[in-house]
Amino acid sequence: MPALVHPGQTTRGQVFGCFIEGYIPSDTLSSTVCFDNVVLCGIQSLPKKSLMTEIALSAISCLFLGKATQNTSILSHGLSLYNSAIRQMSSMLQRGAYTDELFYVTFIFQELNVVYAPNGMDPWGTHVAGMNTLLSHYRAKAKKDPIVDIICRYEQKAKIVLATTEANFSESEYKYLMEPTNGDPLLEIFQIAVLLKDLKCELDSVNHHDLDACEDLLRKCYETQEKLTNLSTDGSLARDAPELQSYFTEDTCIPSSDPLFGPAYHFSSLENAMLFILIWAHLAILQPLTYRAYSLVYLRTGSTGEIWFESRFKDMKFEVPEAYADRIARALPFCFRDSTKMACARYSMFGLCIASFAYFETGNRAKHDWCRGVLDYMAGQGFEIAGYLSERSSYLWQSRWEAPSPLTLLSLEQSSSPFVDSDSLGFSETADSHVDDGYLDYSEYRTLIRAP
Question: Which InterPro entries did the record assign (predicted)?
Answer without folding.
Answer: Osmoadaptation_assoc (IPR053178)
